[in-house]
Amino acid sequence: MICTPAIAAVQNTSAQSNPNRKNIQGKAKTGGKSKIPARKGPIVITSDTLSADQNAHIAVFDGRVSAKNDDMELFADKMTVHYFENGGVDTIDAEGNVKLIKEGRVVTAGKAHYEKANDRILFTENPKIAQASSVVTGSLITYYVSTDKMDVKDSKVFIESK
């Protein structure tokens, strides 16, 4: 496999329980003009398997997928990363048991779609946000990464009284 800036290093992580598990580490970059501030530190993606098509600029991570940076972690059964020719991430599609963990907040859903250009993640298929003693559900949860704001369509809020 040929490595690009988005896929800077590929190695077996033998310290983990599955010797076939793959680990990818790279720096997040923009694929063109963007008003989004650069993320701190690398993004590390681990999975059981990786299939990459350098010509199509697509990497498919399958099985126990985790994408982690300094302040959040995204889990899924499968993630498809579309990246620019220069290696910057364009979009990420996550499906199956999707979970985002950031600063005491957990968002779960059946699917998620990250758009670098809009710096947002769209959660669908029974999305739910849990934080402290409250839970929010809806048909679509839009999470704006840089501003840490969320919009919820068809929302229902459950607050535990103390």
Q: Secondary structure elements and their pairing?
A:
Elements: E1 9-12, E2 22-27, E3 42-47, E4 49-53, E5 58-68, E6 73-83, E7 89-102, E8 105-115, E9 120-124, E10 128-131, E11 134-137, E12 140-144, E13 149-153, E14 156-159
Antiparallel strand pairs: 1-2, 2-3, 3-5, 4-5, 5-6, 6-7, 7-8, 8-9, 8-10, 9-12, 10-11, 11-14, 12-13
- Residue share in helix: under 10%
Query: Count the strands?
Result: 14
- Determine the CATH superfamily: Lipopolysaccharide (LPS) transport protein A like domain
CATH class: Mainly Beta
CATH topology description: lipopolysaccharide transport protein A fold
Give the tally of structural domains: 1
SSE topology string: EEEEEEEEEEEEEE
Corresponding CATH architecture: Sandwich
**What coarse outline follows from CA principal-axis ratios?**
elongated
Fold and architecture overview:
The chain is mainly β. The protein has one domain: Lipopolysaccharide (LPS) transport protein A like domain (lipopolysaccharide transport protein A fold, Sandwich). It is built from no helices and 14 strands. Strands 1, 2, 3, 4, 5, 6, 7, 8, 9, 10, 11, 12, 13 and 14 form a 14-stranded antiparallel beta sheet that branches. Strand 8 and strand 9 form a beta hairpin. It is elongated. The protein starts with 8 loop residues before the first strand and ends with a strand. 24% of the residues are buried. The N terminus is likely disordered.
